[in-house]
Amino acid sequence: MAKYTFKEFQAEYPTDAHCLAKLMEINYGGTEITCPGCGVEKAKFHPMSKRRAFACQECGHHVYPAAGTIFHKSRTNLTKWFFAMYLMTSTRHGVAAKEIERQIGVTYKCAWRMCHELRKLMSSADYGGPLSGHVEVDETWVGGVNRKGGKGQGKRRSKKTIVMGMVERDGMMRAGPVPDDTQFTLEPIILENVTEGSAITTDGHLSYGDLRRTYRHTVINHSAGEYARGIHHTNTIEGHWSQLKRSIKGTHVQISSKHAWKYIGEFTYRRNFRDSHSMMFNRLVSAFALPRLVET
Ligand SMILES: [Zn+2]
To answer: Which of 100, 174, 223, 236 has its CA 20 to 30 A from that of 122?
Structure first.
């Protein structure tokens, strides 16, 4: 992966003003804009010292490039938010709130909140239209607490979250928690997210039984010891699941089912932009433009 080094990051965002200028660029296209106050075209806007705003040189009109974003009401410095974004996109396994607390120098409560806000943003990333080509579909169980004793398998499993994922060969992945793994739940998700006529490979789960009506569906029968047939296998998605589980265990120890969707979204995000760290970072920063687009 092309590395976005800490040195490069620091050079780009040394102060809050630099971070705010980035948000200005994302939301207004720069600091020379048509002023909403006086209407002057290409009016120069200058950063204000006491608030997260830029002021028009002509009329003094203020614009707030962080409005509608998680920064707006946050008292945490923008540089800290940006550093958290840098950290969360620069490791393969993600970072724990404890690590953010230590590296950024905020309270644990604040670090935890930052992590969760950023995970929410990653989870809402837009990966474009439906998947197509050759798509692997699979589901797995994550999280939950494994108690000692080894009995009561059913009970333990019920604390876990079922995650469903779809991934294009050499392409994008989508994944998220599902309430159950019945055909009633899984099939509509596939129909909505995978283009009709695509090739789909799954395991022998009965819930995938009717996919052949819409797709070129191949089943790999794991229970019969089969793991691949020609180009058909589910190794890509299964590789992602084991990485996800290793990362959760290594970084977070455990996650609650309530928050699972955010962790899954985070890992999907990192996986989809794994080829470029700077793109991963920039897409995250740019996500702060989204609430504004919804507003207008
Ligand atoms: Zn103006």
So the answer is: 236
